[in-house]
Amino acid sequence: MSPPPPPLGRGRKRAAQAYDAALDDTDLSAARAALAQGRWQAVRSLLVRTGDDWDRRGHRVTVLAAESYSAAWAREWQLAEPESADAAVLLAFALAHGVLRGKEKPARARQAGRAAAELVPDDPTPWLGLLMLERAVGADEDVVRLFDEVRHRHADHHHAHHLLVARLAERLTEGGADPLHEVYDFANWAAEQAPADSPLAILPVVAHAERFRVLAAAGRLPADPAASGHWSGRRARQVMKAAFDWWLEWEHEDHPRRLVDLNFLAHAKYCEGRGAEAAALFHRIGDHFTPQPWSYPDHDPHSAFRAARDSALGAG
Predict the structure, then answer these.
(1) What pLDDT sits at residue 315?
(2) What pLDDT digit, counting tens, does each position of 259-315 carry?
(3) Do the beta carbons of residue 58 and residue 159 sit within 8 Å?
(4) H or E segment and range at residue 37
(5) 112 and 89 in contact (C-beta within 8 Å)?
(6) What is the longest distance spanned by two Cα atoms in the chain?
(7) 3-state secondary structure of 210
(8) 111-115, 178-182, 249-253: least confident range
(9) Which residues in 250-267 are b (16+ Cβ under 10 Å) and which e?
(10) CA–CA distance from 279 to each of 158, 189, 269, 273, 295 (Å)?
């Protein structure tokens, strides 16, 4: 039986101001809309065109699979094309998302992820799905093992590095703000290992924000990022300056997840009190806000983004 169409009415109106995980990928948005109507052929064409652009492939599969109807349509696709690796990857991601929503069993999602990985041994994407799952429900050693599987296939995988940073930041909250915490070491190492034009140069900023999320949630820092002092220390200032200077020189504006990085950097510059630099970033971001880090530790991300943007641009 085919899945029902997505709900209409008030839910669609709310979605107008909601976060759009597709960001500015219009081809992805179109394929997602087609999938909502059961036209999985549009997804097949999109993924064929994506090829082995691993960061873009991972981004697109993650966004497509996040919809509640994706698992059902992925199964329809598998019935029509049993040998399709892309259908298997989409189903594995959809089941992983189901676990995160509390609607699916982890064992089933793990099995689907491993099955997809066997079909495409050189593709880091199935391993990204498993990493996304274990980052939420798995043990530390499983998270690290799966990150290594991704990195073995694509050393600079953007989403995988963000997932590992978020998980590492959650270790050792008892000591409070520790400038020697392992998440900072990892982020600095990854940024140094990456090519000069890699957006992983922003990873130390991401680590700083993720550590704030954890410490603020644990009551070790004030919940107001701008008033927490977390972005005013010497180390923090060095990290923010290096990342902003790198962005000014960056010429590759086509990375599929660059808006994620720009949101982290704009958040950092706003919290640091560097309004002019934050304003430049907000101009580039436009309306493409991301929940992370604007929600940290417990804020409504859209409201926090709008308030920061209005302040930086002189409208608030």
Answers:
(1) 60
(2) 999 999 999 999 999 999 999 999 999 999 999 999 999 999 999 999 999 999 996
(3) yes
(4) none
(5) no
(6) 60
(7) helix
(8) 249-253
(9) beeeebbbbbbbbbbbbb
(10) 25, 29, 9, 11, 19
Which tokens in the block code for residue 187?
A: 């982020």
Phi/psi of residue 9, each to 5°? Answer: 85, -130
- Contact partners, residue 220, CB within 8 Å, separation at least 6: 173, 176, 177
For the record, the structure tokens of 180 come out as 């020697």
Half-sphere exposure of 309 (CA within 13 A, CB side): 20
Identify which of 159, 1, 3 has the alpha carbon closest to the alpha carbon of residue 70.
3
Handedness of CA 186, 192, 198, 203 (dihedral sign): positive
Read off the tokens for 294: 């604007």
Angle at 36 between CA 32 and CA 40, to 5 degrees: 70
The amino acid at 305:
F
Check if the beta carbon of residue 36 is closer than 8 Å to that of residue 6. Answer: yes
DSSP state of 5: P
Question: At which residue do the structure tokens 């923090």 appear?
Answer: 236
Local structure of 25: helix, strand or coil:
coil
233: its two tokens: 């220390």
Tokens standing for residue 81: 């094309």
Backbone angles phi, psi at 86, to 5 degrees: -65, -40
3-state secondary structure labels for all residues of 119-166: HCCCCCHHHHHHHHHHHHHCCHHHHHHHHHHHHHHCCCCHHHHHHHHH
User: Could you give the CA distance from residue 127 to residue 149 in angstroms, rounded to a whole number?
Assistant: 6
